[in-house]
């Protein structure tokens, strides 16, 4: 007799279940997705012990007839597609007809369901894939599914479960992500009887974000709304203040399905590359709507991955969507004065926001009685609205209560990253303000932009520059920046007077009611970067013939590489040719400062190109441009005369984003006169 046998159905189902049900969070995901497909607008999830012993999902969706209810637990039983052709354009969350069968194969399930037009519902129990009981039952319209003793019959899987709090965290995380893509549905999660999440379900994404991540996040968001052909992208892009050191706060949806996709994340990274410091990842919620026939969701058992018919279109659309949002939110940072109070929470009122709630960086040391400055963005309102203030105050009270009782939220409820933030949202469920109630308005126009004509107190004509530090660029006067009209409206340094240069590094400017502080290197780097990048984009590299060509010796492999990348370098403005064995001679180079070491700049780009391998070319070019900008920018500790400073300011104020260097470091700060007067107690 041969060794091969056909496995029995039970074993087959358990194996198949392994693909769909990895942990309690996958059960919640599948059940909640079914509720969404059933048209529910209220979905509640109740878990105990991280879902391992108990999970219950209740919805007010369509419910099922008795026949459908019995069929639902069969493998490949679905009402969502009819034939293979339907796979070409899936609009529902489910389509495989696998989830309920898989869940039931590895747990004990009890389902109660009733359609809206029947008077009686049905109760079904299934244990380890074996149907136990089907009977009529009285229940509300909709469906409620209880899953207990997950993996009771698959000990190998059970062993790999993490501790309750961690599993609960995964569940909260997955529910947060689903909630973000369905603001019209109210989601509630309770863990061991405690409300962890409650979203308003009022259709407003910002209030959903607020209920999950809190006021601080909701306040630092740029609206994304972009259309390119049949691709529509909406959502919110977080500003630098709420960036994290991992991608934990990034949620990307294609046709409302949460996905992970490298093309999309690379486009986001590229859009943020000059707004964030290295190793910082933005908060982002992006909904990409696209004709379902242009994507394939049937590529991974967990439906977490999608394939696009044209990745490049998606990259471009996401990049522009995010970049436009960021450009329209760029502004000068303000240093606000905060008084450090000895107690927890800080003082309410002016300045308290930075120190207590924002978690923003503090620029000064905080010892008792010492004044510190806390950095917050100028577009924030000077104080909370009453409603936000109430909410924040309650949050602080609660934190305080936890601190004195020695209990943390994580111990009580979820223990997973940011999801803990939502822990208490449910307790104030009725009070969750919608974004209509909260005033998130940006105050940046009034705070920063000065409209009057330039009136330099020094009378210096700074429109003409002939300095060797800052090269004149007439082109910018005629260039129109497509994506924003800031070059016209941004008269950033009108009505300002140069006070001087501080430590040969910072430029001090006096405005009508504020003091500007500019980091000259960061500012100049930004100018150079924008110029080079624009020239690159227009395929007109800012290249100049060198009076004396530069000879560069390379290793064998460097030489090979350099000779194979002449096109890439040419687009950046370098032209060179072979000059004997393993060396090249550079004939022209980008329009860099005359003091720039061309050889060093060239070899640095070559080194990084070789080490980066096959990353996307346009990203590589962008990074090469950073390097060139950095190498040629005026350095800290360079003395600048007045003309040079004005030239710098003039160029800076014409930029799309004058506020940070290309690495995301701030280039400009503002200290308001009001803050200084408070500091010196002229105002109390
Ligand atoms: N909460 C619910 N309300 C109404 N009908 C439901 C609900 N849950 C499941 N069903 C019905 O049971 C069927 C089987 O559900 P199941 O999750 O196993 O498969 P699916 O959702 O069709 O596909 P997938 O395996 O991709 O999730 C669904 O197609 C749907 O008709
Ligand atoms: Mg399903």
The share of residues in helices is: 25-40%
Task: Label the overall shape.
Answer: elongated
Distance between the termini: 96 Å
| Number of separate helices | 23
What is the residue-averaged pLDDT?
74
Number of beta strands: 24
CATH superfamily of the largest domain: Histidine kinase-like ATPase, C-terminal domain
By helix and strand content, what is the structural category?
A: alpha+beta
Bound molecules: adenosine-5'-triphosphate, magnesium ion
Give the biggest sheet: 8 strands, mixed
Gyration radius (Cα, Å) is 30 Å
In short:
The chain has 684 residues and is α+β, with helices and mostly antiparallel strands.
Written overview of the protein:
With about 675 residues, this protein is of the alpha+beta class. It has 4 domains: about 10-160, Heat Shock Protein 90, CATH 3.30.565; about 205-330, 2-Layer Sandwich (Ribosomal Protein S5, domain 2), CATH 3.30.230.10; about 450-530 and about 635-680, formyl-coa transferase, domain 3 (2-Layer Sandwich); about 545-590 and about 595-630, Ribosomal Protein S8, Chain: A, domain 1 (2-Layer Sandwich). Helices cover about 35% and strands about 20% of the residues. The strands form 5 sheets. Strands 5-4-3-6-2-1-7-8 form an 8-stranded mixed β-sheet. Helix 1 (about 10-20) crosses helix 4 (about 100-105), helix 2 (about 25-35) packs parallel to helix 6 and helix 9 runs parallel beside helix 10. The longest helix has 20 residues, at about 385-405. It starts with 8 loop residues before the first helix and ends in a 5-residue tail after the last helix. The structure holds adenosine-5'-triphosphate and magnesium ion. The site of magnesium ion has 5 residues, from helix 2. Adenosine-5'-triphosphate binds near residues 61, 97 and 99.
């Amino acid at each position: 007799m041969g060794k091969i046998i056909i496995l029995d159905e039970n074993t087959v189902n358990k194996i198949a279940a392994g693909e769909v049900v990895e942990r309690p969070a996958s059960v919640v995901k599948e059940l909640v997705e079914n509720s969404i497909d059933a048209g529910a607008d209220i979905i509640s999830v109740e878990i105990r012990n991280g879902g391992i012993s108990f999970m219950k999902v209740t919805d007010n969706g369509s419910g099922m007839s008795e026949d459908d209810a019995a069929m639902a637990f069969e493998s490949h039983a679905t009402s969502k597609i009819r034939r293979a052709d339907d796979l070409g354009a899936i609009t529902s969350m489910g389509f495989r007809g696998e989830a309920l069968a898989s869940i039931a194969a590895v747990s004990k399930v009890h389902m109660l369901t009733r359609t809206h037009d029947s008077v009686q519902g049905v109760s079904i129990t299934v244990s380890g894939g074996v149907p136990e009981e089907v009977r009529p039952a009285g229940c509300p319209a909709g469906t409620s599914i209880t899953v207990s003793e997950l993996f009771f019959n698959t000990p190998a899987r059970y062993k790999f479960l993490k501790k309750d709090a961690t599993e609960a965290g995964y569940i909260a995380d997955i529910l947060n992500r689903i909630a973000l893509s369905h603001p019209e549905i109210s989601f509630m999660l309770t863990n061991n009887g405690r409300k962890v999440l409650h979203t308003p379900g009022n259709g407003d994404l910002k209030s959903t974000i607020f209920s999950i991540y809190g006021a601080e996040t909701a306040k630092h968001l740029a609206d994304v709304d972009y259309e390119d052909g049949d691709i529509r992208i909406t959502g919110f892009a977080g500003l630098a203040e709420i960036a994290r050191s991992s991608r934990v706060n990034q949620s990307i949806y294609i046709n409302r399905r949460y996905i992970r996709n490298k093309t999309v994340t690379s486009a986001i990274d590229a859009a943020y590359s000059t707004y964030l410091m290295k190793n910082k990842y933005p908060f982002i919620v992006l909904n990409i709507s696209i004709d379902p026939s242009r994507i394939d969701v049937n590529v991974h058992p967990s439906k977490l991955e999608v394939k696009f018919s044209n990745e490049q279109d998606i990259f471009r659309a996401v990049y522009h969507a995010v970049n436009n949002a960021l450009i329209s939110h760029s502004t000068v940072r303000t240093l606000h004065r905060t008084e450090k109070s000895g107690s927890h929470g800080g003082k309410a009122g002016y300045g308290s926001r930075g120190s207590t709630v924002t978690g923003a960086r503090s620029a000064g040391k905080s010892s008792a009685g010492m004044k510190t400055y806390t950095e917050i963005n100028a577009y924030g309102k000077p104080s909370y609205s009453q409603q936000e203030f109430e909410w924040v105050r309650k949050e602080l009270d609660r934190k305080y209560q936890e601190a004195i009782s020695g209990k943390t939220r994580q111990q009580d409820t979820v223990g997973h990253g940011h999801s803990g933030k939502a822990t208490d949202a449910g307790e104030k469920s009725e009070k969750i303000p919608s974004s209509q109630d909260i005033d998130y308005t940006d105050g940046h126009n009034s705070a920063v932009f000065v409209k009057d004509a330039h009136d330099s107190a020094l009378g210096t004509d700074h429109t003409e520059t002939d300095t060797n530090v800052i090269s004149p660029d007439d082109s910018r006067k005629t260039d129109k920046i497509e994506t924003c009209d800031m070059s016209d409206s941004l008269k950033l340094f009108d009505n300002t007077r140069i006070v001087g240069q501080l430590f040969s590094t910072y430029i001090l400017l006096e405005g009508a009611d504020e003091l500007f502080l500019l980091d000259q290197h960061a500012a100049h780097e930004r100018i150079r970067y924008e110029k080079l990048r624009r020239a690159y984009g227009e395929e007109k590299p800012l290249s100049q013939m060198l009076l004396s060509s530069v000879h560069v010796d390379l290793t064998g492999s460097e030489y090979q590489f350099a000779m194979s990348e002449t096109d890439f370098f040419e687009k950046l403005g370098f032209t060179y040719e072979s000059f004997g064995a393993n060396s090249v001679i550079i004939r022209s180079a980008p329009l860099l400062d005359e003091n720039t070491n061309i050889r060093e700049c060239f070899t640095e780009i070559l080194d990084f190109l070789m080490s980066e391998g096959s990353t996307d070319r346009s990203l590589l070019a962008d990074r090469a441009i950073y390097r060139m900008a950095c190498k040629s920018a005026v350095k800290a500790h360079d003395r600048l005369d007045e003309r040079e400073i004005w030239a710098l300011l003039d160029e800076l104020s014409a930029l799309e984003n004058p506020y940070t260097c290309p690495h995301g470091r701030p280039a400009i700060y503002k200290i308001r006169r009001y803050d200084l007067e408070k500091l010196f107690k002229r105002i109390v």
